[in-house]
Amino acid sequence: MAYFKIHGTSGGRSETGVRTIIQPYWVDTIEAIDSLEKAEISLGGLPLVDWAFGVYDQELKENGYQVGLRYEGIPSGAPLNERPVWQLSGELVEWPIERHPNVQTLIDDYGGYIENGRLKFPPTRPKGKGDDSGGGGFAQGSDETGEEANIMWNAEKIRVYLPAYHWSFVSRRKPSLLDKVGKVIKRPPGNPETPEGSDWLYAVPDIAYRGNIYEVTEHYMGSPPGGWPPEVAKLVVKGTKSL
Q1: How many domains does the chain have?
Q2: Confidence band (pLDDT; 50, 70, 90) for 77?
Q3: Of 26, 104, 204, 230, which alpha carbon lies 20 to 30 A from 71's?
């Protein structure tokens, strides 16, 4: 059984600094791969994590196999987390208008009333609720009686922005993060832009072992206006224990 290194080395570096090297070898038999794996256990300070193989040359009758050994990690002594890796995203969700944070102001200014358990508004705005010109800051014109059209008429939903934030880093030690799941904090690491009156819920993180390093992505869920209620952590179940 024989093997030797061939041309075609490739690799790269992830945003978090994890290096990858793929080193190709030629082997004469599939059984030789076992010997190769035991002999070439590291490269450039990175441990061997897996390999793949294929026929070396389809045109040759006795061509052997090409094996790609993949090494991954961060060399010992190399700096970690040299630059922040984060992503801020989110979504617009629809809520019933009854959940508007200033719902009482809407009721007072636009004549809201409850009908069949739902908040309704009349087609015209109550007199005295607009500005001195009769137009109001959101006026939609007037009807034949001179009454101001009510922009809240037929309004049933509001759109709420719920942000999401993802913070990635690497660690040589196995991180212990599950105790943080369900906790509410004011500012995640990296201090992302946070809507006024909102905070963040620590969600389940992603943890991957990459050769000789732990790669972690923490996920934070932005709250609705007014922040997450204190009771939200009680709804988070960790393992067999409910908080």
Answers
A1: 2
A2: very high
A3: 204
